[in-house]
Specification:
This protein has helices at about 5-20, 240-245, 270-275, 280-285; strands spanning about 30-35, 40, 50-55, 70-75, 75-80, 80-85, 90-95, 100, 105, 110-115, 120-130, 130-140, 145, 150-160, 170-175, 185-200, 200-210, 215-225, 235-240, 250-255. The chain is mainly beta. The chain folds into 2 domains: about 25-130, Immunoglobulins (Immunoglobulin-like), CATH 2.60.40; about 130-285, Immunoglobulin-like. Strands 12, 13, 14, 15, 16, 17, 18, 19 and 20 form a 9-stranded mixed beta sheet that branches. A 5-stranded mixed beta sheet has the order 2-11-10-4-6, with no helix packed on it. The longest helix is centred in the N-terminal third of the chain and has 20 residues, at about 5-20. About 30% of the residues are buried.
Length: about 290
């Protein structure tokens, strides 16, 4: 008759032991740390090349499998929004600086966060770069006379690319005639060629030919394009309004006056300012007056 209570006590003790084991120190997530993917850089519409990865550990510092990690970002989109750790305790997600709701991310630092309930969170930093940047524009000469023949002007563009693995591959300039409208205009278009420096930091040039008999007046440098691949997502375009706001020249004055009557206009010599191929910051300010 005493055997049953004894067996019951043994079963009860075994059950309590099992419960104690399931909640023993070290079996629950205690900390989360960055494993890889922090500090990456990209353009505002790009997906970062390396995934974001975190490692979840127990109190003894051992990796835990099957732990759910939630991902959020201050800008862009994380995919997927929730992942589970593998046998090595690592969970990963992909971070794009573009989202359908907000579009492309703006310049500067952005943050992504991986969170595990009970273990805290890990914060990643990503930086959005501008890519191709226009540093200076020169039009030499900025006055041409087409009374008796064609005339030409050279457009020089100083452009840099602040990404470490890219470089500018092509560029172009386009002038619009004085009476141009959005639906009816003549234009002078020419591709840029690298003259001095490197694709990451160089001086590009194009020679524009203004034909005899062309419309006279102020032709507008309406578009400067610099890019590194095909498609609108891989180029930057600076319009005349941008050039004007940056203090860069954007007008080419075309006249058709007899040579004996045409006034002599003094223009800044490009070679006198750009001596080493790529102008210094002070030189840009001088030419952009």
């Amino acid at each position: 008759m005493r055997t049953l209570p004894l067996l019951s006590a043994v079963v009860l003790a075994g059950g309590l032991a099992a419960c104690a084991d399931s909640t023993a120190p070290g079996s629950a997530p205690a900390s989360i740390e960055i494993a890889a993917g922090n500090g990456q850089e990209g353009l505002g519409y790009e997906t970062l090349p390396d995934s974001l990865r975190v490692r979840v550990l127990d109190r003894a510092g051992n990796p835990l499998a099957g732990v759910r990690v939630s991902w959020t970002a201050s800008s862009g989109a994380i995919s997927p929004a929730s992942t589970a750790t593998g046998g090595d305790g690592v969970a990963s997600a992909s971070w794009s600086f573009h989202s359908v709701e907000t579009g492309n991310s703006t310049l500067g630092d952005h943050h992504a966060t991986a969170t595990v309930e009970g273990a805290g969170s890990a914060r990643f930093t990503g930086y959005v770069r501008r890519g191709a940047v226009l540093r200076g524009v020169w039009i030499t000469p900025d006055h041409v006379n087409v009374a008796s023949s064609d005339a030409s002007a050279t457009v020089s563009v100083w452009a840099t690319d602040d990404r470490t693995t890219w470089g500018i591959a092509y560029g172009a300039v386009q002038f619009y005639n004085p009476t141009a409208t959005s639906t009816d205009f003549e234009s002078l278009y020419e591709a840029l060629a690298l003259s001095t420096g490197t694709p990451a930091d160089g001086l590009w040039k194009a020679t524009i030919t203004v034909p005899q008999g062309a419309e006279t007046g102020a032709w507008t440098l309406g578009r400067v394009t610099v890019g590194w691949g095909c498609g609108p997502s891989r180029r930057f375009e600076y319009f005349d309004t941008h050039l004007q706001s940056l203090g860069m020249p954007y007008l080419l004055h075309v006249t058709a006056e007899p040579e004996s009557v045409a006034p002599r206009r003094q223009t800044t010599s490009h070679s006198s300012v750009v001596s080493a191929g790529i102008p210094a910051a002070a030189d840009v300010a001088l030419l952009c007056l």
